[in-house]
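Sequence decides. Our protein:
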Amino acid sequence: MAKPMDITSPEQFSDVLKNSRIVVVDFYANWCGPCKQIAPFFDQLNTTLSRPKIATFVKVNTEAEGAKAVAAEYAVTHLPTFIIFRDGAVVEKIKGANPSQLQSAIEKLSNDITSASAGGSGSSSSASGGIAWRGADLPRGYTDVSDSIDVRGLELLNADDSHFSVRTLLNKAKPSALSKDKASSDEKDWIESDTDEQLLLYTPFNSAVKLHTIQITSLPPTGGDDDDDDEVPMRPKTLKLFTNRPHNLGFDEAEDIDSTQTIEISENNWNSNGTANLGLRFVRFQNVTSLVIFVVDGDGDGEKVRLDRIRFIGESGEKREMGKLEKIGDEQG
């Protein structure tokens, strides 16, 4: 059996997540003593349990240029760290060179590996697996928590739902407006408002998160001389945010009540990818179970607003320590 695969780029890692039901990842560094100690055990697990398209074991050198983005994506701040994925989603994260803990976690998935092997390759992981495209860099020390959203509870008011789906906003693929091959008129991967420029997006989370930044991508067409300006959608200008609401607000209510934070987006906030990196007042977004985003108006005189992607950046789960990657397993002193 070959050794665990070395990951050298985010694109390669995304392909692995999409093509294997279970993926076990060893995040390490060459200078890390505990990483070296547990490496033979990880190789042994690979030899015993690896199955094509079912169970894949990979290694990520957190200091290698092409692999740093993968470590950042999953907020790896201690070494070694082992992350287990099933169908593209994280199911277990283990910090430290603890063979018994790692083996115990993998044994929980052994039945899945055995049954999938008996039934052939089985279904591949969902299209939602892999590393998400983002139009801006992650703030240092934070990660993308968009996977914590309960997509079944998403609600978007005043959207033109005859052509657009709210789940499009969380699509992990690069927006078609930035691709050479534009999406056809029947394959729109963005949303637009309907009767006017206002939108109300209700976003529930599966567990409480801490939100640091919202990244909004909006890529309206430039518009030619013959286009009606009212028909060309605008980028959003004013946002009002409301936390921990049990359900979506109505437009009149959203206009009248005080927001958790109001954000004015200027032209300078939009980068070359059409993305605005909107920092939040972090102290007000410490225990967020739901978020309502009210798009109050657009940046022009049109009648519609367009949104292509939204990513939520912050912390989920246990508190992470900031700064340099740490190794676990060596005594201090």
